[in-house]
């Protein structure tokens, strides 16, 4: 699904080739283009990290279709076919170690998403949100929500008290949830800014 979203973002980008129709200094236009590109690049990097780390499962999609068409065999023991929680459940680690892993992953996801949100905020302040930026940011937000569900599900399969580690993991999950809420607000603001720009363009035309 992610590669398809990337293609959609690329198609949207090719449909918006001008930075601004308003007379501005060339360096300002260049900075806006860099910001837009950075939003897309960081959003795609976040999604790639989530997939590479196994926080989200790439089930079906174009790769699954290719496997079906060309007869690729999938092994039940293939780790890529397991969800994050299933991988955690299949590990032989003690509860404390598992909680520590989930905490570290949730914290890493929160940091990366927060960095992306800061870049999106800078783009919002520039007042020039393109459709490709919005698509990429919303796609990363959906991936972050999937990551949160994976982490929360993983803590549910751990047996044993490990109370201190559990509390630390739950704190990391609350932090990630807060960052997701902030990113969701940014996505709403980006959507509104893009819609306003589209409306203004239609009025001028």
Characteristic key phrases:
205 residues, disordered N terminus, mainly alpha, 7 helices
Describe this structure in words.
Helix 1 (2-14) runs antiparallel to helix 6 (131-156), helix 5 runs antiparallel to helix 6 (131-156) and helix 5 (95-126) packs parallel to helix 7 (163-204). The model is unreliable at 1-32 and 60-77 (pLDDT under 50). By secondary structure, this protein is mainly α. The two termini are 36 Å apart. It is 77% helix and 0% strand.
Task: Explain the layout of strands and helices.
Elements: H1 2-14, H2 26-52, H3 61-70, H4 84-90, H5 95-126, H6 131-156, H7 163-204
Helix pairs in contact: 1-6, 2-5, 2-6, 4-6, 5-6, 5-7, 6-7
Task: Characterize the main sheet.
Answer: none
- Percentage of β-strand residues: under 5%
Number of strands: 0
Low-pLDDT segments, ≥5 res: 1-32, 60-77
Order of helices and strands: HHHHHHH
Structural class: mainly alpha
Radius of gyration: 20 Å
* Fraction of helical residues: over 70%
Question: What would the principal axes of the Cα set say about the shape?
Answer: elongated
Number of H- or I-type helical stretches: 7
Distance between the termini: 36 Å
Name the average pLDDT.
Answer: 76
């Amino acid at each position: 699904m992610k590669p398809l979203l990337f293609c959609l973002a690329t198609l949207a980008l090719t449909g918006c080739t001008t930075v601004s129709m308003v007379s501005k200094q060339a360096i300002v236009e260049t900075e806006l283009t860099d910001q837009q590109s950075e939003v897309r690049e960081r959003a795609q990097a976040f999604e790639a990290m989530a997939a590479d780390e196994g926080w989200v499962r790439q089930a079906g999609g174009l790769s699954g279709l290719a496997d079906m068409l060309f007869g690729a065999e999938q092994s039940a023991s293939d780790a890529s076919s397991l969800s994050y929680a299933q991988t955690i459940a299949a590990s032989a680690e003690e509860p404390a170690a598992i909680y520590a892993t989930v905490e570290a992953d949730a914290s890493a996801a929160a940091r990366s998403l927060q960095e992306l949100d800061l870049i999106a905020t800078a783009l919002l302040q520039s007042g020039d949100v393109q459709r490709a930026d919005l698509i990429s940011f919303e796609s990363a937000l959906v991936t972050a929500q999937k990551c949160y569900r994976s982490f929360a599900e993983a803590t549910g399969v751990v047996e044993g008290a490990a109370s201190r580690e559990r509390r630390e993991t739950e704190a990391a999950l609350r932090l990630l949830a807060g960052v997701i809420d902030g990113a969701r607000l940014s996505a709403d603001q980006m959507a509104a800014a893009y819609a306003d720009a589209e409306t203004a363009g239609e009025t001028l035309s």
